[in-house]
Amino acid sequence: MSEKPPVDDERHAAKMAKKKAARDKIMATKTDEKGLIVVHTGKGKGKSTAAFGMIFRCIAHGMPCAVVQFIKGGMATGERSLIQDRFSDLCEFHAMGEGFTWETQDRARDIEMAQAAWEKARELIRDPKHRMVLLDEINIALRYDYLDIDEVVTFLVEEKPAMTHVVLTGRNAKDELLEIADLATEMELLKHPFRSGVKAQIGVEF
Amino acid sequence: MSEKPPVDDERHAAKMAKKKAARDKIMATKTDEKGLIVVHTGKGKGKSTAAFGMIFRCIAHGMPCAVVQFIKGGMATGERSLIQDRFSDLCEFHAMGEGFTWETQDRARDIEMAQAAWEKARELIRDPKHRMVLLDEINIALRYDYLDIDEVVTFLVEEKPAMTHVVLTGRNAKDELLEIADLATEMELLKHPFRSGVKAQIGVEF
């Protein structure tokens, strides 16, 4: 812990009152609303899971949204079935990839897929009815140069509707993308069960 | 990028084939199924969002699950309404806290709430029908010693049913908890829109 916890109630109350005052003061300065460019990267778990959590949050609020999967399309995920079965009215779901690239071993085909997914992504983002668009695992397509980072960055900066949130996930996010991101989180792996011989499990990994 | 991307198709195919072989070999050794102790910590975004994403994943697979909110109960979240309105048959939701501690400034009351939430958590975890139980923001209750870390760790190690996944979230996860975790992720903040005067927004923050 970075800080010692309080030892008695008075000190705690005083500390918390100070915290609240500071927080209220800060929050009062936060007045803008804008569509954010959100990036989830890093080698840890939770990049796509947190992004899909944001999509479910939008669905919960009745906000039209959309998902384009750049890489994981070949894997059936719980999120995909839940969205397609229950919430297709609010959330468009496009699984464009065909599994991880190391499953296909065909670069030309991967590039074709990534380009088609990006075409769909642009169409969805340009439609201002979408309050959030998730580009799942796009960082992998960018990392292998299946997509041109400058083209993606330029599109997001110049053509994304002001109020639309765009969430981009995947390891090895490019610096050019992080530079234009409003909110970027790195998921860092501290511990992983595979290391102790546990396999990927329903509900946890997919 | 930690590694240069491949420059031509042959090298790419060879590299990916090698990757796939290595991955298949590793995955073949992963045969165990067990209930995991999963921790999401760190100062970044996505700790609770990814945990709720896992809950929605369980719901998608028809796996009974449960959520206990230790701190955020006072905040209406999209996840909460979506689960309570649409999936109460599969997921029990208990919002036990009453907002962040710095909103209450009453340590005795916070401790009482945390203890009641922990009581409910134990009851839900002991019931083997729950495939996953999310203890949202429990790390904050542990950090301020509203709950005894040794009691929590001992319970998880000795009483958690073998196949039940328990997900614990919040900043400043205690070392004792990380030691028994099967899967631990630190969400690290790279960039945050509050810094540029943007307020918390529906769909993104809540």
TrEMBL record, chains A, B:
GO terms for molecular function: ATP binding; corrinoid adenosyltransferase activity. Pathway: Cofactor biosynthesis; adenosylcobalamin biosynthesis; adenosylcobalamin from cob(II)yrinate a,c-diamide: step 2/7. It is an enzyme of class 2 (transferase). It comes from Albimonas pacifica. It catalyses: 2 cob(II)alamin + reduced [electron-transfer flavoprotein] + 2 ATP = 2 adenosylcob(III)alamin + 2 triphosphate + oxidized [electron-transfer flavoprotein] + 3 H(+); 2 cob(II)yrinate a,c diamide + reduced [electron-transfer flavoprotein] + 2 ATP = 2 adenosylcob(III)yrinate a,c-diamide + 2 triphosphate + oxidized [electron-transfer flavoprotein] + 3 H(+). One of its GO terms (cellular component) is cytoplasm. Keywords: ATP-binding, Cobalamin biosynthesis, Cytoplasm, Nucleotide-binding, Porphyrin biosynthesis, Transferase. Residues 7-27 form the Cob(I)alamin adenosyltransferase N-terminal domain. This is Corrinoid adenosyltransferase. It is found in: Cytoplasm. It comes from the Bacteria. Gene3D superfamilies: P-loop containing nucleotide triphosphate hydrolases. Its EC number is 2.5.1.17. Residues 1-24 are annotated as: Disordered. Belongs to the Cob(I)alamin adenosyltransferase family. Residues 1-13 have a biased composition (Basic and acidic residues). CDD domains: CobA_ACA. Transmembrane segments: none annotated. Required for both de novo synthesis of the corrin ring for the assimilation of exogenous corrinoids. Participates in the adenosylation of a variety of incomplete and complete corrinoids. InterPro entries: CblAdoTrfase_CobA, Co_AT_N_dom, P-loop_NTPase. One of its GO terms (biological process) is cobalamin biosynthetic process.
